[in-house]
Amino acid sequence: MKRSLEVIRASSWLGWQVEANWADPFLFFVYAIAKPLATTLILFFMVRIVSGGSATEDTFLFLFLGNTFFLYVTEVLIGISWAVFRDREDYETLKYIYTAPIHFLPYLLGRGVTKMATATLGVLVALVFGRFVLGLPIGDAHTPWGLVVLATLLGLVAVVWLGIILAGASLIVARHSINMNEGLSGLFYLLSGAVFPLEVLPGWARTISLGLPFTYWLELLRRLILGRPYAAPLAHMPDMTLWGVLALSTAVLTVFALLWFRWCEHVARSRGLIDWKSNY
Amino acid sequence: MNGWRERLRMNLGAIGARARVRVVASWRERSWIVGETIFPFLAMSAFVLVYRGLKAPRIYEAFVVLGGAMIAYWNNILWSMASQFFWEKEQGQLQLYLITPISRMAILLGMALGGIAMTTSRAVVILTGGILVFGIPFPWDRALPAFGLFLLTLGAVYSLGMILSSLFLMWGREAWYTATLFQEPIHLASGFYFPVRALGTVAASLASILPIAVGLDGIRQVLYGEAAHGFLPLRWIPVVLVALLALFLFLAHRSLAFMENMGKREGRLTLRGD
């Protein structure tokens, strides 16, 4: 355990160097906030252009929160799996990690910690932008910010293990399958109802959506910050149930991720894919 | 005379060879086909459902679908054209291009043609899925002029990709991050998910330097007329695109030569250990 924590700490430091040492802090800051601000403004203009219809500030507020917190999913999910491709094919260091006296899984978790840090910066800037530039009523004196942080952390655990699942898949597929990772992130963006109410999904998709931890995570965060439910299919669920479902689904995801990653590692090693290069 | 013919033959061969690598590769990896078609469609669907959740007129969903198809090309330019020389440098292949008697423009043109072939499968799935799954209105009787404008747009956009490629030639790891910076902010500025006019006159005018913004605006206007909320008058758009195409090709040629010379002087075209 102590050894794993040391590996996590070292690889998160390495991840930070990979992420940030190419530029001065200001440029890196711009890079970190460009995506969340741009996606926020895309939704802002989408809502504004149809605001003659039924779109209101309240509608945008829910979309804004879902989109902002979903940044964690995008960044961490893609970041962890992309670390496999980068280390395997660009830096060609993956084989050295396997020949070092460490396990690859804690190394990847450390890389995930770095992505969590950069995503947190983006989320915080987006929230401040929404509150003070767009004038959105985000939080008040009654907002339980401690619970918001707790719910964010719990959701992050699920995101990280999902990232590990994708990293396992990345070990056995070619580099250009980064599209698969981005696509899966898009799929979760679609199914978790990050930017639209779940009730617009067709029935079969809504069923899948209700099996995803992110659906409950985003609903919980919206309720904690805004004090009222958003997704109609979850409106009957008390907050405690949402906490319970999120915790349980995260536990199931963790077990599955561990088993899946171990199997993928075995396949990658037996097929000689650890030093694969597949950039066409 | 023979020298001129020989150069032409070699450059045409290089274009075909560089394009072929991509076409063959795109069909060799099944995971790529799925990743390039199904998943991007699902990601685009989220934005269609935003409008559906807002109870917006159906035509807005069509805007998203067309934008989603164009995003495929923009991402291809960023990741497989602009930053490709960076990848090639990391793999030690860039120096092989430089020692051949082939124009860099020929290599880039091959990349562009191969990239267009790769990306068209993704764009077609998005468009077909948009029509069949979401039932977006698509006036087939106006498809031909829209397709013509689309081809003109691709020419100008890939020419811009050549300029970006010359810039990325000089960069190290910052190329990767710069490409990321050119994703969502360009999606915003180009009006991929909403008519670019919504940005306001000043911002939309600035966005008009991006051929993909101008082209998408034009394609929407051709297909949906007034309902497209176009920014530039439609009759100007082909002229603007041709002008951008010519300008970007000229700049790409100059920029590539300049950057290559600078890279050689500063020793930035190869990596330590190559």
Helices and strands, with pairings:
The complex is a heterodimer of chains A (280) and B (274).
Chain A lengths: L1 H19 L4 H25 L7 H34 L3 H6 L4 H30 L11 H27 L6 H14 L11 H7 L3 H14 L12 H32 L10
Helix pairs in contact in A: 1-5, 2-3, 2-5, 3-5, 3-6, 3-7, 3-9, 5-6, 6-9, 6-10, 9-10
Chain B lengths: L1 H27 L1 H24 L4 H25 L1 H8 L2 H6 L4 H29 L10 H28 L3 H8 L2 H6 L11 H7 L3 H14 L12 H30 L8
Strand content of chain B: under 5%
Question: Structural class of the secondary elements of chain A?
Answer: mainly alpha
Strand tally of chain A, please? 0
Order of H and E elements of chain B:
HHHHHHHHHHHH
- Indicate the structural class of chain B: mainly alpha
Mean pLDDT over all positions of chain A: 89
Please state the average pLDDT score of chain B: 88
Strand segment count of chain B: 0
One letter per element, helices H and strands E, the order of chain A comes to HHHHHHHHHH
Low-confidence segments of chain A: none
What's the end-to-end separation of chain B, in Å? 37 Å
* Low-pLDDT runs of chain B: none
Describe this structure in words.
The complex is a heterodimer of chains A (280) and B (274). Helix content of chain A is 74%, strand content 0%. Chain A has 280 residues and is mostly helical. The radius of gyration of chain A is 19 Å and the shape is globular. With 274 residues, chain B is an all-alpha fold. Chain B contains twelve helices and no strands. Chain B has helices at 2-28, 30-53, 58-82, 84-91, 94-99, 104-132, 143-170, 174-181, 184-189, 201-207, 211-224, 237-266. Chain B is globular, with a radius of gyration of 19 Å. The mean pLDDT of chain B is 88. The chains are: A mainly alpha (280), B mainly alpha (274). The interface between A and B is large, with 49 and 49 residues.
